[in-house]
Design brief:
heterodimer; A: 5 helices; 27% helix; B: alpha/beta; six-stranded parallel beta sheet; 22 helices; 18 strands
C-alpha cells in the first residue's frame, strides 16, 4: 500500500498507519518461541522481558521434541503494537531462538491452561462446588471428607470464571500452569 | 571429531583460537586460567598482551577489532577478572564490536559453592553480551569456541563470553573443526528486492533527501563505506553521520554535512528536521541523535537499513524497513538506482542544496582563539591544530577518545576520510575507553600514529595502562584537554542546574608530565596558545609514548547543543551566535 508522494500520513509497507508510533492502545499477544533446550535459555528470555520493561502475563516452557533438543516457550504479553513488534524482534535476535510465532496476529489459535483448585468445605457448599465442577468439566483429582482438588483445563477465561465461583465455596489454593498454545489448522511454527 | 585425546582443554582452546585466525590476546592471569597461561607459554603462534586491569583488556580488544575488522580476544580469570571485564563487554555490546572474552571459572564440581574467586559469570554477563557460554563438557569446548567467533562476528557484531571451568582446561579434550554455519543463529544479510525498489522510488521522488549513516556501515567493512560514497555521489544527496559513523563518508567531501545529533552541526540537524525523504543506514535512531521523538523529522518518508531487525521501528516508525547487511543493501541500492529510469527531481534538490548552504553559513562549530602570547588555548583550537599538524605528516592516523566534551570536540574538529580510524565509546559513554583502545590499535598497527584525545578526568579512569604502553613500547600519544573539570558534567550543571558545580571540579590532579615520566613515557605541557604547535610537533616526533597536558579554557562549552527534550530545530548555539531562542525545558531535565 504505497501512499501518494503528497500523502501527509505515510504508511508502513504492510499497511499499518505510521501513527502506530503514537498508538497507545494495549493489546494482548500470545507468542510462541522455539528455542534450543540448553542451560540458561529461559533466563535469557525472562531477562529480556525484565531488562527492557515488557510485561509477562503468563509463561510456560517445556521440551517439545522426542530428543529433548528443542523447547517451546509460550508467553502471553501485552503492550502497544510497536512494543509487541519490538518484543518479537528482540526475541528473534537471541542466539538460541529458532523461530517465533505471534499466535494472536498470525491467525486463529487455541490456547489452553491447566489449573488445580483446592476447595475446602463441608455440607451444602461441598455439594455445590462439586455441581459447578461438573458444569465446568473439572475432574476431582484428590479428595478428603473436607476438601477437593479439582483439575480444570480450558481457556484462561474459563479457569478465571471457575475460580471466581469457588471463591464463595471455600476456595483455598490455586495452581495454574500458564497457557500452552498452538495455531489452528495445518500451520506450524 | 578427532578421537585424539592427547591435548588438554587449554591446548585445544589455543588450537581453536589459532584456527580462528587469532594473533593477539589481551589478558590478565589468575588462578582459574593458569592452565591457559601455561599453554600460552609453550607456543609462539598467539601473542599475549598483559594489561593492567581487565576492563582495559576489553577496550584494547575493541580497539584492535575496530581498527582491523577482526574479532578482538580477551582472556581474564574468574570472579573479579570477569566482573572487571563487564564494563568493557557492555561497551562492546552497545557499539556492536566483535569481541570474544574467555573467562576462567572454578572447576565444575565447585560451581555454586561460593568457591574462592567464584562469580556467576554467565548470569552476570547475560545482559552484557550478545551471547555467552559455560563449557561444562570437554567435548563441547572446541565447538563452543568456533561458535563464539561466528556469533561475535556475524549479524550485528557484539561481545561473546566463554566461561571456562578450570577442570575443563586441564582435562584432555577432543578437537572439532569450525562448522560453516550455526544451528539457530542465521542473521539475514541480503535485502529484499521489493523493499529496495520501494526505497529507490521514494528517493527518486525526493525533493529534500538526506542520508543518515551510522556505525553499521563501518562494521560492514570498507567496501560498504565505498558503496555509501558511490551511492551518495550518484544521487547527489546530502549526508550526515552519527558519532559512530564518522569516517563512513569522507569528511572532506562537499556533500558531507558533518555529524548530527545533540552536538551535531546546524546544517545536519536542520536537514534531518526538514527533509522529505530519509535514508538511514546502519544507524539506530538513538536518543542522542533524534532529540525529542515527537518532533523528529515529522515530514519525511523514512527508509531504514539495519542488520538488526530490532533496531527498526524501535524508536522511530519507518515506511520501508530493510533488514540487511549495510554493504549488500548499498550494492542493491546502487544497482536499483541505476536500473530505475525515473529521473530524480534535480530542480527541487538544487533548491534544497541552496537551503543547506545557507544553513552552513551559520558556521555552527565556530570558535574564536585569541592569538596574543599568553592567551589561553581553546579546546577546539587544540584539536584543530592536532588535526592539521598530524595530517601534514601524512602518516596513517587513528584517533581514540575518552568520554565528554573533548570527545564531542574531537568528533567536530578532527575529520576522517576513511572508516576504522575513529574509535570512541558511543553507546555506553565509557570514560576510560580511549587509552586502552589506543593500545589495541597500536598493537594492530605498530607503525601508525595513534592518539587518544582525552580529558583530565577520563584519562585517570584507566591511567594504569601507561604501564602496558611502557612494557610493549607502544608509542601511543595521550593528548589531554585539561580544563580541570569533568567538562560535560560542568556544562550540564551550568545550563541545567544553575551553575552549581557539584563535585565536577577535578581537585588534586596529578602532574601529568611527571606521571608520564614515572611510566617511562615522555611528558609535555602547553599552557598558552603560542606553545601549542611546538608541543603537538614534539609529541608527533617523539618515538615513545607521550602524555601532552594541554591546559584549555575551563569555561568553554560544547556547542551546538540540542538540550535533552528539545527538537532538532531547537539547537543552542554558542556565544559566537545570537540567541537561537532555545532553552532547557523542565521535561528535558529528567532526561540524560
Amino acid at each position: 500500500m504505497a501512499p501518494a508522494a503528497a500523502d501527509p500520513v505515510p504508511f508502513f509497507s504492510d499497511g499499518f498507519p505510521m501513527s502506530a508510533h503514537s498508538d497507545t492502545t494495549q493489546r494482548s499477544a500470545t507468542i510462541s518461541v522455539l528455542v534450543d533446550n540448553e542451560a540458561g535459555v529461559l533466563a535469557r528470555v525472562i531477562g529480556l522481558f525484565s531488562g527492557r520493561g515488557y510485561n509477562i502475563d503468563s509463561l510456560t516452557v517445556a521440551p517439545v521434541d522426542a530428543a529433548g533438543l528443542r523447547s517451546r516457550i509460550n508467553v502471553v504479553t501485552s503492550g502497544t503494537s510497536m512494543v509487541i513488534e519490538q518484543i518479537k524482534a528482540q526475541l528473534d535476535r537471541l542466539v538460541p531462538v529458532h523461530r517465533i510465532a505471534d499466535l494472536t496476529m498470525d491467525g486463529p489459535h487455541v490456547a489452553r491452561e491447566l489449573a488445580l483448585v483446592k476447595v475446602i468445605g463441608t455440607g451444602e457448599q461441598r455439594v455445590e462446588a462439586m455441581r459447578i465442577a461438573d458444569t465446568f468439566r473439572a475432574r476431582v483429582v484428590d479428595t478428603t471428607l473436607g476438601s477437593f482438588v479439582f483439575e480444570l483445563t480450558g481457556a484462561s477465561e474459563k479457569v478465571d470464571a471457575f475460580i471466581e465461583l469457588m471463591r464463595d465455596l471455600g476456595l483455598a489454593e490455586v495452581s495454574r500452569s500458564g497457557i500452552a498454545a498452538l495455531a489452528r489448522g495445518a500451520r506450524v511454527i | 571429531m578427532s578421537a585424539d585425546l592427547t591435548q588438554s582443554g587449554a591446548e585445544i582452546l589455543l588450537r581453536a583460537l589459532k584456527d580462528q585466525g587469532v594473533e593477539v590476546i589481551f589478558g590478565y592471569p589468575g588462578g582459574a586460567v593458569l592452565p591457559i597461561y601455561d599453554a600460552l607459554f609453550q607456543q609462539n603462534a598467539i601473542r599475549h598482551i598483559l594489561v593492567r586491569h581487565e576492563q582495559a583488556a576489553v577496550h584494547a580488544a575493541e580497539g584492535y577489532a575496530r581498527s582491523t575488522g577482526k574479532v578482538g580476544v580477551v582472556l581474564v580469570t574468574s570472579g573479579p577478572g570477569a566482573t572487571n571485564a563487564v564494563t568493557g563487554l557492555v561497551d562492546a555490546l552497545m557499539d556492536s564490536i566483535p569481541v570474544v572474552c574467555l573467562t576462567g571459572q572454578v572447576p565444575t564440581h565447585l560451581i555454586g559453592n561460593d568457591a574462592f574467586q567464584e562469580a556467576d559469570t554467565t548470569g552476570i554477563t547475560r545482559p552484557a553480551t550478545k551471547h555467552n557460554y559455560l563449557v561444562k563438557r570437554s567435548q563441547d569446548l572446541a565447538r563452543v569456541v568456533h561458535e563464539a567467533f561466528y556469533v561475535a562476528s556475524h549479524g550485528r557484531p557484539g561481545p561473546v563470553v566463554i566461561d571456562l571451568p578450570k577442570d575443563i582446561l586441564i582435562n584432555p579434550a577432543p578437537y572439532t573443526e569450525p562448522a560453516a554455519s550455526h544451528g539457530s543463529y542465521k542473521p539475514r544479510i541480503d535485502p529484499d528486492a521489493d523493499q529496495i525498489r520501494q526505497a529507490v522510488a521514494i528517493l527518486k521522488a525526493a525533493k529534500r533527501p538526506v542520508i543518515y549513516a551510522g556505525g553499521g556501515v563501518i562494521n560492514a567493512g570498507p567496501e560498504a563505506a565505498a558503496l555509501l560514497t558511490k551511492f551518495a555521489r550518484m544521487a547527489g544527496f546530502p549526508i550526515t553521520t552519527t558519532l559512530m559513523g564518522l569516517g563512513a563518508y569522507p569528511a572532506s567531501d562537499p556533500q558531507f554535512l558533518g555529524m548530527l545529533g545533540m552536538h551535531g552541526t546546524y546544517e545536519a540537524n536542520l536537514a534531518m528536521h526538514g527533509c522529505d525523504a530519509m535514508l538511514a543506514i546502519g544507524a539506530r535512531f538513538d536518543d542522542r541523535v533524534t532529540g525529542r521523538l515527537n518532533a523528529f523529522s515529522q515530514g519525511s518518508r523514512k527508509i531504514h537499513i539495519d542488520i538488526d531487525g530490532s533496531s527498526i521501528n524501535k524508536n522511530v516508525p519507518v515506511e520501508v524497513p530493510i533488514i540487511a547487511d549495510a554493504g549488500r543493501a548499498l550494492a542493491a541500492l546502487v544497482a536499483a538506482w541505476e536500473a530505475d529510469p525515473t529521473p530524480a527531481d534535480k530542480a527541487a534538490q538544487t533548491a534544497w542544496w541552496r537551503q543547506i548552504d545557507e544553513w552552513r553559513t551559520k558556521d555552527s562549530l565556530k570558535f574564536t582563539q585569541a592569538r596574543a602570547p599568553g592567551s589561553i588555548i581553546k579546546p577546539q583550537y587544540a584539536i584543530q591544530r592536532l588535526f592539521e599538524l598530524s595530517r601534514k605528516r601524512g602518516r596513517e592516523t587513528f584517533i581514540t577518545t575518552e568520554v565528554g566534551q573533548h570527545q564531542m570536540w574531537a568528533a567536530q574538529h578532527f575529520h576522517f576520510d576513511k572508516p576504522n580510524h575513529w574509535l570512541t565509546s558511543g553507546g555506553l559513554g565509557t570514560m576510560g575507553y580511549g587509552l586502552p583502545a589506543a593500545m589495541g590499535v597500536q598493537i594492530a598497527h605498530p607503525d601508525a600514529l595513534v592518539v587518544d584525545i582525552a580529558g583530565e578526568a577520563s584519562i585517570l579512569m584507566n591511567i594504569q595502562e601507561m604501564g602496558t604502553l611502557a612494557q610493549y613500547r607502544l608509542p601511543v600519544k595521550v593528548f589531554i584537554l585539561n580544563n580541570e573539570y569533568m567538562g560535560m558534567v560542568r556544562q550540564w550543571q551550568e545550563l541545567l542546574h544553575g551553575s552549581r558545580y557539584s563535585e565536577s571540579y577535578s581537585a588534586a590532579l596529578p602532574d601529568f608530565v611527571k606521571l608520564a615520566e614515572s611510566f617511562h613515557a615522555t611528558g609535555m605541557r602547553a599552557t598558552a596558545v603560542e606553545q601549542l604547535d611546538d608541543v603537538i610537533n614534539a609529541m608527533l616526533d617523539c618515538p615513545t609514548a607521550v602524555i601532552a597536558d594541554i591546559a584549555v579554557d575551563q569555561a568553554e562549552n560544547c556547542f551546538p547543543m540540542i538540550p535533552s527534550g528539545a527538537a532538532h530545530n531547537e539547537m543552542l548555539l554558542g556565544p559566537e551566535h545570537e540567541s537561537s531562542g532555545a532553552s532547557v525545558s523542565d521535561g528535558g531535565m529528567v532526561l540524560v
